[in-house]
Automatic annotation (TrEMBL):
It comes from Endozoicomonas montiporae CL-33. This is Cell division protein FtsX. The chain crosses the membrane at residues 71-92, 220-244, 281-304, 316-336. Residues 223-335 form the ABC3 transporter permease C-terminal domain. Residues 11-34 have a biased composition (Basic and acidic residues). Its main location: membrane. Residues 1-10 have a biased composition (Basic residues). GO terms for cellular component: cell division site; plasma membrane. Gene3D superfamilies: 3.30.70.3040. Residues 1-34 are annotated as: Disordered. Belongs to the ABC-4 integral membrane protein family. FtsX subfamily. It is a multi-pass membrane protein. Pfam families: FtsX, FtsX_ECD. Residues 107-197 form the FtsX extracellular domain.
């Protein structure tokens, strides 16, 4: 019995010895094949998603141009809503340019000591003119100031009765454009400590009035933009809702065969993108049309005041802002409408 058992054990050991072992090359090859298969699957899914988005974008655009009248009216409504804050921004920008170039610019009046001689006055004028925050200066001598005062007030008899000229020499300082009220106030205080200067006064009333107008317009433009942004979201959402209702049966079929809500929402989201983009481009054209319509009257008014002011039109930054806002608000409006109506479609 023992020899038979030994032969059985020997056959098992021989079969194990004869069994071919896995070579390292075969293992590496199978790993490489699996990696290639995974890479191919990942590339296929990315290609599929890219093709899916392209197809939905083209299809949604095709549906819009098949109804040109309604699409144009919706885009025009959105464009008018975008054009109002854009025109407000242009108004603020042109007011700032007009204020910087107008003769009523904020100035600093520097009153000199009457005991200064010509060389000392020249030194003070040179020091102020070399200030980097100063655009230009104008010196008004005591005699010139007295002559202007007599012309405006008709008080020559009173001045003659005094027997001397009570007015000091004045340097009118025009700061560079773009300085804030605080910076101009600091510039006036800087001259207050210069030897030979009695007083330096900033035309505070003009600066405060101009700053208040600009701040008020900025706040109004921001509030108007928020309100009209909500209006655009509601308008696009209502338009997308009508599109969902018209394709209700198609959406039911897609859901029955396993289509997800995200898959169903995709063409409507692209419709919101197209509506927002179309409205932004129309808003840009409306802004230019309004500006060109007022150009002749503005130039005529500026000519009457002897000014070379030319209105500033909407540039590339305004166009990019409109496009970005249109796309974002379009997607937001479409997403809100889809979330409310697509999920509530009854499948029975």
């Amino acid at each position: 019995m023992f020899p038979r058992k030994g032969r059985r054990n020997g056959s098992r050991s021989d079969s194990k010895a004869r069994k071919p072992a896995k070579s390292p090359d075969i293992r590496q090859e199978s790993d490489a094949e699996r990696g290639a298969a995974k890479h191919e699957a990942g590339g296929f899914s990315f290609t599929y998603l890219k093709a899916l988005h392209r197809q939905n974008a083209v299809e949604s655009f095709r549906r819009l141009i098949q109804a040109p009248v309604s699409t144009l009216l919706n885009c025009l409504m959105i464009g008018v809503a975008f054009a109002l804050p854009a025109l407000m921004y242009l108004l603020i920008a042109n007011l700032q340019v007009l204020g910087n170039g107008w003769e009523g610019n904020p100035r600093i009046s520097v009153y000199l000591d009457a005991d200064l001689n010509r060389s000392q006055i020249a030194n003070i004028r040179a020091e102020i003119a070399n200030d980097p925050d100063v655009d230009s200066i104008a010196y008004i001598s005591p005699d010139e100031g007295l002559q202007e005062f007599q012309q405006k007030t008709d008080m020559q008899g009173v001045v003659n009765a005094l027997g001397f000229n009570p007015l000091p020499g004045v340097i009118e300082v025009l700061p560079i454009p773009g300085l804030t009220y605080e910076e101009m106030d600091g510039l006036a205080e800087r001259y207050q400590n210069v030897s030979g200067i009695l007083e330096s006064k900033l035309d505070r009333e003009w600066v405060q009035r101009l700053q208040s107008i600009v701040d008020l317009l900025d706040q109004f433009a921001l509030l108007l933009s928020l309100l009209l942004g909500i209006t655009v979201i509601l308008a696009i959402g209502n338009t997308v809702r009508l599109g969902i209702e018209s394709r209700r049966d198609e959406i039911k079929v897609i859901k029955l065969v396993g289509g997800t809500d995200g898959f169903v929402m995709l063409p409507f989201l692209y419709a919101g993108v197209w509506y927002g983009l179309g409205g932004a481009l129309l808003a840009y054209l409306v802004s230019w049309a309004v500006l060109l319509g007022l150009m002749s009257n503005v130039l005529e008014l500026a000519g009457l005041y002897g000014s070379s002011f030319a209105p500033k039109g909407p540039g590339i930054s305004v166009l990019l802002t409109l496009i970005f806002s249109g796309i974002v608000l379009g997607v937001a409006g479409a997403a809100v409408s889809c979330q409310r109506h697509i999920r509530n479609i009854d499948m029975t």
